[in-house]
Amino acid sequence: MKKFTLHLKTISIVAFSTFLLAFSDPESIEQYVGNLQKSFTDHYDFSQESTQIKRYELNVTNNGFCRYKRYFNNGKTEYFSFKLSKFKDMDYYGNNISGKLYLYTKGEDVIVQTYKDRGGDVDSMATQVIIPLKNIEAEDLNLIKENFAKICGNQHP
To answer: Domain residues of the chain, as ranges?
Structure first.
C-alpha cells in the first residue's frame, strides 16, 4: 500500500508540474525586446534619409521603451519615444526591398522632441513613429508584430 501511495504522489507531482509548465511562457520580455532590437538593426534603411540625416539611434530597451533619434545635417535633432506597452498596431508601406514601418500607439503616447529647429525647441505628442526599413520579408514583419504583442501581453501598465 505504501508503494502504491508513493507512486500516486509521484505521478500527481509530475502531472501538476507539467500542467504549470504548459501555461508558462518560456521566453522573457528581454528576449522579445532583443528580437525587436535585432530586427530594427538588421533592417533599418539609412539610405532613405541619408541626404538629410547625419546619423540615427534606434533602441528598444529592457525597461520597456522604443527610442528613435535622428540627427540632421543642419544640426536639428528629432527624438521619438514610446512605452512598448502602449503599442497598438503597425502597418508597412513598401515592398521587400524598401519601405516604411508605421508603429501606432493606443493614443497620443509617442513623445516627440525637436531640438535646434528654426522654430525653436518643440515638445509634443503623437500617435505613431515611422521607421524606414529595407530587405524585409512578410515573416520578419509578422515576427516584429508578434514580439510587440507578446510584450504588451506580458507587461503591466
So the answer is: 29-154
